[in-house]
Design brief:
about 425 residues; 10 helices; GMP Synthetase, Chain A, domain 3; 18 strands; six-stranded mixed beta sheet; 3 domains; Rossmann fold
Amino acid sequence: MFVDKAKIFLKGGKGGNGAVSFRKEKYVPAGGPDGGDGGRGGSVIFEVDEGLRTLMDFRYKKKYLADSGENGKAKKMFGKDAKDLILRVPPGTIVRDEETGAVIADLTENKQRAVIAKGGKGGKGNVHYTTSTRQAPNFAEAGDYGEERSVILELKLLADVGLVGFPNVGKSTLLSVVTKANPKIANYHFTTITPNLGVVELVQNKSFVLADIPGLIEGAHEGIGLGHEFLRHVERTKLLIHVLDISGIEGRDPLEDFDKINNELERFNPKLASRQQVIAANKIDLLDDKEKYKEFEQIMIDRGYKVFPISAATNTGLRELMLYVTELLDKIEVESIVEEIETDHKVYQLEKKEKEELIIRKEDNLYIVEGKSIEKLVYSTDFNDIDSIRRFQSILKKKGAFDKLKELGIEDGDTVKIYDIEFEYYD
């Protein structure tokens, strides 16, 4: 099954907590703190695997969570960093942030990597909190939480040449004849509902990838029919072979079809319509009136297009067409194609999210204090240790928690709840 779109949730691993520990050695009755730092949480990383062709692996499993880092240990021993979670994707995969729609990774090269959800930093052990007045800190820092985000994966095939045209004009037959691809072929509309790829090599060491893009219809740019699902696969191609049914046996006008398809390409992405095109006038063997072809050819030549009369069914004219395309690909500037792709799909750097705002609200008779940094502070505090409590209060004061509580009208003796901890407030 060909899957070219998937929505998944990613979460980096939490950093390990710092350790609270003191030296316990013979002849050292009052050893100092020696708690080590926690290990880094694992990150979620996408890596390109050129052996993959679809996003099938993400069809059923929707959540991917990296492992947490190991907690710090005694004797200043650091906890182990967690292994990163590597998710393999096919070349041509675009990663979008679901919330903003921004492209955060455009993965095209084999083994290319992108960190999408970073693991949390490990917390510091109590060895870091000694001061001249605090010789035995009985607290350490909790590890940071890993980044989390929902992303949408989109696969845009990496083909050099794309076959475009209306359904049932012979694209699949053409692909099967000039490559070793084995697409499903039958005489009814929308036979091809998934893109097919094949490699053409008529000239030694000059092969190219040819993609049979499912047939486009009017309204495709609006998502009608197979619309958006497959138009995006044309975007990365360097060159288009526009396959037309010159025979007219189904009552089609090749010139009218040509204009309609290009209109759909133009309205979906203007740069697509400007892609260089070669015209393959297919089913020439079924055309009785040769003058009809000559008229069509002259019109297309006047428009600046090269036309090849072919028959995919009888192998007529295919070698000439493919040799011309091989030569043409050498002349197309790759830089301009890459530049267009980058313009259309701007890749945004994953910026570190701003620290979450301190949230303080009143519910009934409770004053509630929340926030990621506050949650981390709670779990870094030993409420049985006076030094740890003083540090806790000092940080809350620096963050402006007490000022906000006063603004809400808190009075001595009122209850403040910070996650699982409740205490009475006194100014």
